[in-house]
């Protein structure tokens, strides 16, 4: 499986994302600059964390109009897996590929620590290697991770099982502790925690590996015929 | 040429922790009469001569980029700039 790791000016988790799929899983991965006009040769699109365009105006607001975003939309429409982590999640909400928005943390602090997450929906192409309701430990690092949406949007997310991860504890003010959501079709996931930083015991844990394994497993089942 | 002053504010339904922190500070300073503080953004745009209706243009800019209407409201004022 071949991944594109999109690099915006100000991305800073691109190396971790690349490392997770390339070195830990042994899949193909390439860095793709934000003005690329063609993502057709990639099977999965990864939008990394960081501070694209310095977070000017609002997090992700300027990145949503990067040249590559038309291609990201096309990939999403084609049903390819699109994963946005941290700033990548913020970009996906600004671009309208996921509903809601990420606000300043309720305590106004940038928070960097490992937190407990609950897998709310393991029936997605991103979470099929987890157990339903499994508690995992994944690092967070964000100042704007406070997920906000109106009542109608929340009810819609809930009814469609689009809430994929929630925090075990409320620390940033996110509505109903939402940590990650998926689109209706089930191929675009945005989450604030960093699974790509939990792929080796050397760096404190491996609970993030199953997310990347899920993507690859699903893709293999759909695209590789077994003799 | 026109100067456009755009005010972007958080919607009433959205909590503003920054505003609350500033209000807390004002209260500590003794200004107990301050009942609410909301922090927003102020942008100044200079728009050159254009065929387009400026009002419609600025609305479009606000919708597409300057404000996120999920959480923010905006309003603007248009001033004629007389070139010297």
Automatic annotation (TrEMBL), chain A:
Location within or outside the cell: Cytoplasm
UniProt-listed InterPro entries: Class_I_gatase-like, PRibForGlyAmidine_synth_PurQ
Catalytic reaction list: L-glutamine + H2O = L-glutamate + NH4(+); N(2)-formyl-N(1)-(5-phospho-beta-D-ribosyl)glycinamide + L-glutamine + ATP + H2O = 2-formamido-N(1)-(5-O-phospho-beta-D-ribosyl)acetamidine + L-glutamate + ADP + phosphate + H(+)
Keywords assigned: ATP-binding, Cytoplasm, Glutamine amidotransferase, Hydrolase, Ligase, Nucleotide-binding, Purine biosynthesis
Functional summary from the UniProt entry: Part of the phosphoribosylformylglycinamidine synthase complex involved in the purines biosynthetic pathway. Catalyzes the ATP-dependent conversion of formylglycinamide ribonucleotide (FGAR) and glutamine to yield formylglycinamidine ribonucleotide (FGAM) and glutamate. The FGAM synthase complex is composed of three subunits. PurQ produces an ammonia molecule by converting glutamine to glutamate. PurL transfers the ammonia molecule to FGAR to form FGAM in an ATP-dependent manner.
PANTHER family, sorted: PHOSPHORIBOSYLFORMYLGLYCINAMIDINE SYNTHASE SUBUNIT PURQ
Protein name: Phosphoribosylformylglycinamidine synthase subunit PurQ
Originating species: Planococcus wigleyi
TrEMBL record, chain B:
Record InterPro entries: PurS, PurS-like_sf
Subcellular location, record wording: Cytoplasm
Metabolic or biological pathway, per its Swiss-Prot or TrEMBL entry: Purine metabolism; IMP biosynthesis via de novo pathway; 5-amino-1-(5-phospho-D-ribosyl)imidazole from N(2)-formyl-N(1)-(5-phospho-D-ribosyl)glycinamide: step 1/2
Annotated keywords: ATP-binding, Cytoplasm, Ligase, Nucleotide-binding, Purine biosynthesis
Top-rank taxon: Bacteria
Catalytic activity: N(2)-formyl-N(1)-(5-phospho-beta-D-ribosyl)glycinamide + L-glutamine + ATP + H2O = 2-formamido-N(1)-(5-O-phospho-beta-D-ribosyl)acetamidine + L-glutamate + ADP + phosphate + H(+)
UniProt GO molecular function: phosphoribosylformylglycinamidine synthase activity
EC supergroup of this enzyme: ligase
Subunit-level organization: Part of the FGAM synthase complex composed of 1 PurL, 1 PurQ and 2 PurS subunits.
Family named by the database record: Belongs to the PurS family.
Its biological purpose: Part of the phosphoribosylformylglycinamidine synthase complex involved in the purines biosynthetic pathway. Catalyzes the ATP-dependent conversion of formylglycinamide ribonucleotide (FGAR) and glutamine to yield formylglycinamidine ribonucleotide (FGAM) and glutamate. The FGAM synthase complex is composed of three subunits. PurQ produces an ammonia molecule by converting glutamine to glutamate. PurL transfers the ammonia molecule to FGAR to form FGAM in an ATP-dependent manner.
Annotated protein name in UniProt: Phosphoribosylformylglycinamidine synthase subunit PurS
Organism of origin: Planococcus wigleyi
